[in-house]
Amino acid sequence: MEMMKDYGLILGRIVTIFPLMLIITLFMGRRSIGELPVFDYLIILALGAVVGADIADPQIHHLPTAFAIIMIGIFQKIFSYAVIRFRKFGKRVTFEPIIVIHNGKLIYRNIKKARYTIENILQMLRQSQVFNLSIVDLAVIEPNGELSILEKSNAASSSSVVYPVIREGQIQSHVLPFFHLKEQWIHDQLRHKDVKLNEIFLATLDDQLHLHITRYTEQGHGHLPPLYQ
């Protein structure tokens, strides 16, 4: 009998708590889960923890849980206002867009700052139907983690697929047989371009045997267009 009472209590809490959650969510504003800033994501986690504990444990008082949900919603609204109203504060507590490709070159420092890898960037390019790094004029990792891409005006004329032959100073020897090449050809090309192997962050090769090189030191921060003031 006691167990049935607990089950009824849990059911009653579910019926009352979810309409309140819906109201608070609408109050917080429309935004897809994939676009949540860091703080809003933490708010969702906090709400989930509070609601989950309230539903699962009948011993927890229900009214304090409802009060906590309302206060979390109000706090989120105040925080969002502060982010918009005070720009310096907003820059400190949110991710800013980061340029990771400029004029066909990867920006190593910014990729490292965003904690991404070459594989992450190349995958995101492929998902956007971009298979040649050299046709990208600008690529930006947005605060929601997505990659925004601006292709060069002549992109259509140079959109062949390219293959990484050097990654982080290491020759990808398994790729070379596809082009009927040997490592010595790579070394000869680097010598001709006066580039050392350990200076290369990424080098790609197209079907015309054009070697496209990005160095670790490519594009200092001062040369990049400003995106976030």
From TrEMBL:
UniProt keyword annotations, A-Z: Cell membrane, Membrane, Transmembrane, Transmembrane helix
GO cellular component term of the entry, any: plasma membrane
Superkingdom, natural source: Bacteria
Cell compartment(s), UniProt: Cell membrane
Keyword ATP-binding: no
Gene3D superfamilies assigned: bsu07140 like domains (3.30.240.20)
Main location: membrane
Membrane-spanning parts: 6-26, 38-56, 62-84
Domain YetF C-terminal residue range list: 85-205
Membrane association type: Multi-pass membrane protein
UniProt similarity note: Belongs to the UPF0702 family.
Protein name in the entry: DUF421 domain-containing protein
